[in-house]
Amino acid sequence: MNLLQDPHTANNTEIRSACFDQAEYAYVLIERDLSVVDCNRSGARLLAGKTIYRDAQGKLALTGDRGSTKLRFNVEQALNRGSSRTLFSLTPRVWLKLELTRVETRQQCHALVLPRTIQLDATPDVEAATRLFGLTDCESAVLIGVARALRPKEIARHLDVSIHTIRAHIRSIYAKMGAHSAVEMQKLVTILEDQ
After folding, report:
1. Average pLDDT across the chain, whole number
2. Mean pLDDT throughout 128-157?
């Protein structure tokens, strides 16, 4: 996404704000040093919260696992590669999904941050993971249980198979998805949603 703007045009800010204020989701436009350049109405409400906020220096800050350090890394990645996507664990069942995109003006590059909270209590859609990683029907059923944060014993009881079968399927899913833990599998499934 390239957004070309002329900073010397008087009504440029009004055009940009009118366009972005209609956005369905909150957005925050930041510089490389995490200084907030612009945001829409939803983004302004978000910055007044406890999860995403503006610190004393006016920089975007995050609570949660490694907060702003992880955010700074993903901003650098977005500015260098064009986009970046990451998840922050707010609670074991609620994650913050951030999509970052490089936005270019004639003067410099900024990172457009699109934050969204994801509730893991909802039934996950694993169709994208099934297609992308070539999972079998049984592996897909096991992945649904893992994405719901069920233990292998609970998945085995639900699918009416032995726990050894479930563990074999989980090992196979790990290998196909390149994951090393159930949390990584949950994150992969969550990232693939809404594609």
Report:
1. 77
2. 86
The pLDDT score that the predictor gives to residue 185 is 79
124-132's contacts with Cβ under 8 Å and 24+ in sequence apart are 124/148, 124/189, 124/190, 124/193, 125/193, 126/189, 128/189, 128/192, 128/193, 128/195, 129/177, 129/188, 129/189, 129/192, 132/192
- Which domains can be identified in the chain, with CATH numbers? 12-119 (3.30.450.20), 127-192 (1.10.10.10)
Give the predicted TM-score (pTM) of the model: 0.54
pLDDT at 21 over 60: no
Give the residue from 33, 54, 17, 53 showing the smallest Cα distance to 108. Answer: 33
Alpha helices in the chain (DSSP H): 12-21, 41-47, 67-81, 127-133, 137-147, 152-159, 163-177, 182-192
Q: Which amino acid is at 7?
A: P
The helix, strand and coil proportions of the chain, stated in percent and rounded to the nearest 5, come to 45, 25, 35
In whole angstroms, how far apart are CA 170 and each of 47, 142, 193?
Answer: 39, 7, 20
pLDDT-derived band at 6, boundaries 50, 70, 90: very low
